[in-house]
Amino acid sequence: MNNALTAAAAGFGTGLSLIVAIGAQNAFVLRQGVRRDAVLAVVGICALSDAVLIALGVGGVGAVVVAWPGALTAVGWIGGAFLLCYGALAARRVFRPSDALRTDGDAAGSRRRAVLTCLALTWLNPHVYLDTVFLLGSVAADRGPLRWTFGLGAAVASLVWFAALGFGARYLGRFLARPAAWRVLDGLVALTMIVLGVSLVAGA
Question: 74-119: per-residue pLDDT in tens?
Fold first, then answer.
């Protein structure tokens, strides 16, 4: 029992260390949380996607994918292009803050866009595979028969982090009531997306 708890705690800590960082996915979840736009769907997609990727890593799929390096190259080009486009849109909002503050319009369409964007930011990012599938998978392998307990801890860490980021961001609303604050947030999002996009394309 103690060994299982230790493995789960190790997985939780390792998972947090990999996802608690400024990145495209976290920046998007933060922005959706502040706007209170499709937060449950976005948090659910991020947490469930991480759980699937962690399971693949723990199950050893990472070793199979490594045998075909062209897969990461293709994902790098596609993901990099997507991040650059999304970064350009965020940069545009810096100069047109009214777009960022607008909350009217088709709620279903907004939710659909949020879901599709979240899926793209999650599954078209090679760093997700490197961190979640390969790195976590290799660390979990050292746990032997407790590797799935380790993976469960990592999956719980992902759920806790994205829930805190998405649903906790709404408390920043009063600080972001002014257009100038949104311009700063969108500026940070744009910078993050563009830097990551350039790094992905350059490394592909």
Answer: 766 776 787 788 778 778 877 875 544 443 444 555 788 899 999 9
